[in-house]
Amino acid sequence: MILQKLLLAFLVALLMVLILGPLFIPMIKRLRIGQTEREEGPQSHLEKTGTPTMGGVLFLFALVASVLIFASDSALVLCALLLTIAFGLVGFWDDFIKVWFKRSLGLRAYQKIILQFLIALAAALWLYYSDEVGSKLLIPIWNIEWDLGIFYIPFAVFVIIASVNSVNLIDGLDGLSSSVTIIFMSFYAGLFFLLDVPDKGGLATFCAALTGGLLGFLRFNNYKAQVFMGDTGSLALGGAVAAVALISRSAVLLPIMGICYVASSVSVILQVGSYKLRNKKRIFRMAPLHHHFELGGMSETRIVFMYSLTTVICCVVSMLLWSIG
Q: In terms of pTM, does the model score above 0.85?
């Protein structure tokens, strides 16, 4: 029965995006909702200016519909869905400003961080006081629980904000964020059944629905992309990544399963730090890391394949760590 729900949630979300995509993309083209590329980014990306954006609306709509059909009876699933939608709305606002004013930067940095912090804090408090989640983390191999107590709240806030911004940073090449997150969510759907968490079927259904929606979106987002997900999609995906990690109490695995997300954030931090502390000397040709590979002559499709393969390997390792315990 659980497997049937998973497959149906996946198929419904997949088919909704595949059907709505050909209707949605021409509509946003007519509305001139196009991407504005940063001039300081890779010069090859300037030709992408004008490509329809805010495509994240497609798979978010499919996710909401699929979850409400197959897993709406779970408070944990609804929490994951609300966290995803909340960050999707922040991204939508950011995209709207970019499109309306025709500039590559939307919300100010301080505006983004304030909104992200408020959403993250609300989610952290709910998780902390929830009887089904609480303040304990599951530790693989040793199969023990680590109770963070009140420190769980700042920990959860950090995980959420870090995840949201990391997924946002990786969304820089056609199909990259979609591909990596499809793999991440697919493995998490299976990982739930290795974890001692309540309503694992409903949470796995959430992952399956998002996987289906993203796979359908990848049909229009792979190289050369007909549509970009925009911050509407990337911030929402970051919220979903953080939600499944925290609700499953397996956030200690996030740096492994989400190694490509982490690499993007760390590369930016190192680049900025080096530039400011070493007299404008850079470590990478350009950050995030995928642009470093791109400027080194690697094609977008090859980078996407490399990131996807790395994510598969790290997800397999993570599942092995749980199975050992």
A: yes
